[in-house]
Amino acid sequence: MMSDGSSEPGQTRKGPAIQVLLQTFSRSNLMTTRLPSARTVLILTGLLLLALSHRGNAQVPLPDGAGVRTGVLPASWLLGGPKCVEIPQFQIHEYNEDLYIIRESGCANYEKPFLYLLFGKDKALLLDTGAGKTEVSRYVGLVSDTWLRRNKRESIPLVVAHTHAHRDHTSGDQQLGALPGAMLVKPDVKSVQDFFAITNWPDQIVQYDLGGRILDVIPIPGHEKSSIAV
Fold first, then answer.
1. pTM, full prediction
2. Pairing relation of β-strands 124-127 and 114-119?
3. Phi/psi of residue 48, each to 5°?
4. Cα–Cα dist 131/154, whole Å
5. In order along the chain (230 residues), what is the average pLDDT of each group of 10 residues?
6. How far apart are CA 181 and CA 116, in angstroms?
7. N or C: more exposed end of the chain, with fewer CB within 10 A?
8. How far apart are CA 45 and CA 201, in angstroms?
9. DSSP secondary structure string, the chain?
10. What angle do CA 184, 94, 210 make, to 5 degrees?
11. Where are the domains of the chain?
């Protein structure tokens, strides 16, 4: 243990949580021959666990995110109503320069699904295509145009895949698959396996490179048999 100079050699410095605990013990009957009540024992046990937790956390450095790029989430989402005519079908949020979150409004569909558009140097990956009848391709196009202008690019290939095959995540497949330069991965186990080169479904985690940006693709069947996490 580290010493702050105020402790005797060989002694552990008492943090604020430990000091509070000791004060509580001093005020209790545990320092005397009188037995404490069950309630007192429970309270002191909880304080001890809390103190140990604080001391443990103080010894562990904050994680760096394992190299995952951070970003900023919106303060709120436009969920819909009361005047749906004034609310766009999708809310576009730039999490960071190469990751956009596209949230479908409750005015467009009650499911309000999230879509994720990730950019690498060589290609972009769109996860999910929304629910119901929308102009999802127009909104994805707006995001792509913004990214292309910023990076002084004329075009970038688009891969359209899915977290799973339920209709509220696949309704825009036809229009997005028809975009120039787009590749649609059908939402079934065989198509997902073939495209991402997963030979041992669902026990194999594979890497998919967007160009300077490697993604882990993890099969997670359960909610739906072709489900993946990225």
1. 0.73
2. antiparallel
3. -65, -45
4. 29
5. 42 48 48 59 67 52 68 91 90 97 96 98 98 97 97 97 98 96 97 98 98 96 97
6. 18
7. N
8. 46
9. ----SSSPTTPPPPPHHHHHHHHHHHHSGGGSSSPPPHHHHHHHHHHHHHHHHHHHHHTSPPP-GGGPPP----S------S-GGGS-SEEEEEEETTEEEEEE-TTT-TT--EEEEEE-SS-EEEE---SSS--HHHHHHHHHHHHHHHTT-S---EEEE-S---GGGTTTHHHHHTSTTEEE--SSHHHHHHHHT-SSTTT--EEEESSS-EEEEEE-TTSSTT-EE-
10. 40
11. 16-58, 79-229
**How many residues would you count in the chain?**
230
Assign domain 79-229 to its CATH superfamily.
Ribonuclease Z/Hydroxyacylglutathione hydrolase-like (3.60.15.10)
